[in-house]
Amino acid sequence: MSTRERVVLDAAPSLGALYAKAAGSRLRALLPGGKAEGGTLPEAEHHLESLAADPARLVAYQRLVGDTVRDTLPSVFVHGMVFPVAMSVMVREDFPLPLLGMVHLSNQVNHLRPISSAATLSATAWAADLREHRAGTQLDVVVEVAEGGEPVWRGVSTYLARGIWPGSRPGAPAEARAPFTIPGRTASWRLGADTGRAYAAVLGDYNPIHLSAASAKALGMKHAIAHGMYLAGRALAGSTPHDTGYNWGIEFATPVFLPSTVDVAFTDRGDQTVFSGWGARSGKPHFSGSITTTAQAPGSGR
After folding, report:
1. C-alpha torsion 150→55→296→251, nearest 10
2. Cis peptide bond prior to 259, omega within 30° of 0
3. d(CA 162, CA 159)
4. Count of CB atoms situated within 10 Å of the CB of 6
C-alpha cells in the first residue's frame, strides 16, 4: 500500500494556469533567497476522478497524427488527458526542480486493454526516482489510469533538469553514445513551423518551447521544437493494435527543431514493431522506440 499523501483534485487543472504557476516559481527561484533546487521529491500523489474524453478533441487528435478515427482511445491521447494531473505534481511548491526548460527523455507505457472513448476514467500521478544524469538530474513521473477501479493504462515519463545535480557536479566526462546507423527509410514527415501550436490546440500543452522561435529562445532553445508526444503519436498511429493490449516505449535523442523533415523507419517483428526517426538533412537520430502486443482479444483472430 502506498504511503504517499493523496491529494484529490476537484477538476482537471488548466495547463495554462499550471504553466503560469511554473513561470512564477522559476522567477521566484532566481530572486535572492529563492527556492533551492535539486532536493527531494514530494511524498504525495494527485488523484482525479470522472475524467472523460472530449469527442471533438479526440477526432481532432486522430486527424492531426494520422490515426484511424475510431471509438477507442489512442494511447498518446490518454497521456494528453492525464497530463494536467501529472503536471500538477510538478508545479507543487515542494517539487525540487524547475518545470520550464525541463527536457523530455523517454516514455514507457502499458496500454492494458482497449479503452472506450465513452469511458469514465480516474488518474493518479506522482513523481519518483530522483537520480543523477550526465547533464543534470532526472526523474520519473508516473500516472496510473483506471476505469471502474480496473487498471487500464500506466505511463512513466522521464524528464531531465539540465545543469542541476542532486549532489556535486560529476567530474568524470560523459560516456560516448553508440553511433547511430541510419536504417532503411519507410516514410518522411514534413513538420511545419506551426506543428507545436497545432498539437497544443488539440491537447492544450502550450509549453513555450514548442510554440514559436521567440518563446523557445526565451527558455534557452535555438528554435521551437516538436512535442515529444506528438512524435510518439505519429509513430504509434497505424502501428498499434485496436483490439488488444500493448506496451510501447520511446526514447528521445535530439530535439526536432521546427520546421523540419524527419525520416522514419518501421520494422515489423511479429508481435513487435520497432521504429526510429532522424533528421532528413542532418542524419542525426531524433527518437527510437517499440510497440509490443501483449494479449489477444477473445475472438479477434490475431
Report:
1. -90
2. yes
3. 10
4. 11
Least Cα distance to 285 among 271, 265, 301 occurs for 265
Distance in Å from the first CA to the final CA of the chain = 37
- 0.85 exceeded by pTM: yes
Measuring CA to CA, which residue among 94, 71, 91 is closest to residue 83?
Answer: 91
Cβ density class 182-198: b for 16+ within 10 Å, e for less: ebeeeeebebeeebbee
Where do we find the cell 497544443?
Answer: 200
Distance CA 195, CA 212 (A): 10
**In the 8-state DSSP scheme, what is residue 215?**
H
What is the spatial order of strands in the sheet that 120-133 belongs to?
Answer: 5-8, 44-52, 120-133, 136-147, 150-162, 103-111, 246-252, 285-293, 272-279, 260-268, 187-191
Distance CA 9, CA 50 (A): 11
pLDDT (tens digit per residue) in 34-66:
454 557 999 999 999 999 999 999 999 999 999
Residue 293, SS3 per DSSP: strand
For the record, the C-alpha cell of 132 comes out as 543523477
Which residues is 188 bridged to in the sheet? 263
What phi and psi values does residue 232 have, to the nearest 5 degrees? Answer: -65, -45
Contact 112, 151 (CB under 8 A): yes
Q: Is 139 helix (H, G, I), strand (E, B) or coil?
A: strand
Residue 225, beta-bridge partner list: 257
Amino acid at 56: A
DSSP string, 31-55: STTPPP-S----SEEEEEEEEE--H
Cα distance between residue 302 and residue 300, in whole Å:
5
Percentage of the chain beyond pLDDT 70 is 89
Q: Residues for the chain: how many in total?
A: 302
